[in-house]
Amino acid sequence: MSEKYFEIINKIEEITQLCTKVQNINSTLTEVLSILTNLCEVESGSILLFDSTTNKLKFYAVLGPKAKDIINFQISVGEGVAGWVAQNKSVAIVNVGDTHIKKSDQLDNKIGYTTNNILAFPLLVQNRLIGVIELINKKDNFYTTSSCAGRI
């Protein structure tokens, strides 16, 4: 087995241990996100949690150059890539030029950021949506189905 495979297994174990000793949800989510952004070699990442009373996703943990600009920002289910993932409970891989999922430039324009590619996947408990994780701007330029998407 490859060295990368063992690294992935170790990171999954590390995330599992973090989740079993949650004392502060915000710091735990940030630690999980840090592990994922390093493992997947991305510039930015976010964990959005779903609020069923408002049908919105709220940015709870954010890492990257514009993190403080979007923490606590909310988007509607169905809006942009994260909203599509929430609505469909399905993984999305979107690279520059893709048209199968509509990327919303609204947030990018508001904070002055350029999103080139996104890997987003739903957080589900017994098929019930609790949130979405986004991994943004992969450092080796684009996502494929065999990149980080196949590792998590």
Descriptive keywords:
152 residues, alpha+beta, single chain, six-stranded antiparallel sheet
* Radius of gyration over all CA atoms, rounded: 15 Å
| Molecular shape | globular
**Mean pLDDT level:** 80
Unreliable spans are: none
- Give me the number of helical elements: 5
Number of strands: 6
SSE order, as H and E? HHEEHEHEHEE
Share of helix, binned: 25-40%
Task: Describe it.
Helices cover 35% and strands 30% of the residues. It is built from 5 helices and 6 strands, in the order ααββαβαβαββ. The chain has helices at residues 3-20, 25-40, 67-70, 80-88, 106-111, and strands at residues 42-51, 56-63, 74-76, 92-95, 117-125, 128-138. It has a 6-stranded antiparallel sheet, with helices on both faces. Helix 1 (3-20) packs antiparallel against helix 2 (25-40). The longest helix is centred in the N-terminal third of the chain and has 18 residues, at 3-20. The two termini are 16 Å apart.
Offer a quick outline of the entry:
By secondary structure, the protein is of the alpha+beta class. The protein has helices spanning 3-20, 25-40, 67-70, 80-88, 106-111, and strands at residues 42-51, 56-63, 74-76, 92-95, 117-125, 128-138.
Question: What is the topological layout?
Answer:
Elements: H1 3-20, H2 25-40, E1 42-51, E2 56-63, H3 67-70, E3 74-76, H4 80-88, E4 92-95, H5 106-111, E5 117-125, E6 128-138
Antiparallel strand pairs: 1-2, 1-6, 2-3, 4-5, 5-6
Helix pairs in contact: 1-2
